[in-house]
Amino acid sequence: MTTSTPTPKSSFFRQMAIISMLFFVFGFVTWLNGTLIPFLQIACDLKETQALLVTFAFYMAYFFLAIPSSAILKKTGFKNGMALGLFVMAIGSLIFIPAAQQRAFGLFLTGLFVQGAGLALLQTASNPYAAIIGPIESAAQRISILGICNKIAGAISPLILSAIVLKNATAIEEKIKVAVSATDKAQLLDELASKVITPYVIMAVVLMVLAFLIKKSSLPEIDTDKEDSVDGVETAHKSSVLSHPHLVLGVICLFLYVGVEVMAGDVIGNYGRAMGMSLDTTKYFTTFTLISMLLGYVIGIFTIPKYISQQTSLKLAAILGLVFTLGTYFTEGYTSVTFIALLGLANAPMWPAIFPLAINKLGRFTKIGSALLVMGIAGGAILPQIYAQLKSQLHLANNLAFLICMLPCYAYILYYAMAGYKAGLKK
399 or 167: which carries more pLDDT confidence? Predict the structure, then answer.
């Protein structure tokens, strides 16, 4: 793949600081979904299958907007594209105001889709940027550093939002259940829904300020359309981005990885509630998974590529994923939930390894390759829906539905780590 002209250390650290800030934003916004699912299930009086449309609306935006994002980046460049993505996310946050006032689930989903659209643009620009600003061999290490920023934000955000919107959640649920009249119930639900307005207004303001700061920043533009001497050998005879098997297999791998990440992070609360745990307890479960992921990123920083390669870390992570998934199935209660939280440790090295491995040596196809990989984030929309349907339509046990969703995904990720990442590449 194309690399940038070497820059002084101070410039590199400045670029990494800016991208790190963006990854913090990714994490903060993305991992609010774990709190929004139970919140909207109560406030909008939803079934579990409906509540899980939160992840569907959010992550499907990546599928529909990733390719347009690539086209937008061709016109705007990376830096302006990042600023635009932040602005679109701010608009999505503002949609929560009328959604809460009307207690309209459809409007909430619209706001989430718009936020996802902004993130699709932001991710399409920033991930290849992180891979390109230094040697490909240490790309996983850089993305692990960015992942720490992402997961620190992700661990904090559900705690903040749940403290605001799910305070005394169990007591609120009981009040709603015993409400004598429809009017009393509607009033309680309206009061609950209104709690989400202030945090999302604040978020919109912060996102707009960040958009302005990014646009005015010294972040340099990177040209990925020129082929260097190495990439020219790989790409000169290829007329389509789909002519790179390691990328195509990587898109599938990323799709499955994001699916298992969202299951471990956002669905873990529903998993606990299905076993009879209270919302006052389960609202913290997403944070446990993200702390586990944070530990995984720290390990990645100190071990990749000094002690193990990024493909070896991916292989070990996939094996851990298989082991922890089986642990979830064969245990019960808090032990089972702990195994799901530990999946964060297994998932942590995956994005940092999959993205640079899949985008390696794409040359002039880097932007569109990045867009295809970002489309793979739609896995976060699909896997929770499969899980919900297995339980509601086929009436499978909670742990069996979870196993069926997760085990094949980790098996494929293991295949990609062992062979798929080098498919079609010249030795």
Answer: 399
Nearest to 348 by CA among 426, 257, 249: 257
For 31-63, give the DSSP string: TTHHHHHHHHHHHTT--HHHHTHHHHHHHHHHH
Q: Give the mean pLDDT of 380-386.
A: 96
Count of C-beta atoms within a 10 Å radius of residue 423: 14
| 131 φψ region: left (φ > 0), alpha (ψ -120 to 50), beta (else) | alpha
Distance separating alpha carbons of residues 304 and 291, to the nearest angstrom: 20
267: left (phi over 0), alpha (psi -120 to 50) or beta: alpha
Backbone angles phi, psi at 56, to 5 degrees: -65, -50
CA-to-CA separations, 10 to 7, 143, 226, 371, in angstroms, rounded: 8, 19, 25, 29
- What pLDDT, on a 0 to 100 scale, did the predictor assign at position 304? 79
Provide the residue count of the chain: 427
Neighbours of 87 (CB within 10 A): 19
For 374, residues 6+ apart whose C-beta sits below 8 A from its C-beta are: 62, 66, 69, 120, 123, 124, 127
Locate 27 and state its tokens.
């994490």
Residue 326: exposed, middle, or buried by beta-carbon count in 10 A (0-12, 13-18, 19+)? middle
Span 13-36, mean pLDDT? Answer: 87
For residue 305, is the peptide bond before it cis, meaning its omega torsion is within 30 degrees of 0? yes
CB-count burial class (<10 Å; 0-12, 13-18, 19+) for 197: middle
Concatenated DSSP letters for 265-283? HTSHHHHHHHTT--HHHHT
Q: Are 266 and 245 in contact (CB under 8 A)?
A: no
Rounded Cα distance between 98 and 344, Å, is 35
Q: For residue 21, give the H/E element and its range.
A: helix 9-30
- Among 341, 340, 36, smallest CA distance to 169 is for 36
Distance CA(28)–CA(93), nearest Å, equals 13
pLDDT digits (tens, 9 = 90+) for 182-218: 888 899 999 999 999 999 999 999 999 999 988 888 7
Amino acid sitting at position 37: I
Which residues are CB-contacts of 107 (< 8 A; sequence separation ≥ 6)? 95, 98, 99
pLDDT of 146 > 90? The answer is no
**pLDDT of res. 311:** 87
pTM given for the model: 0.85
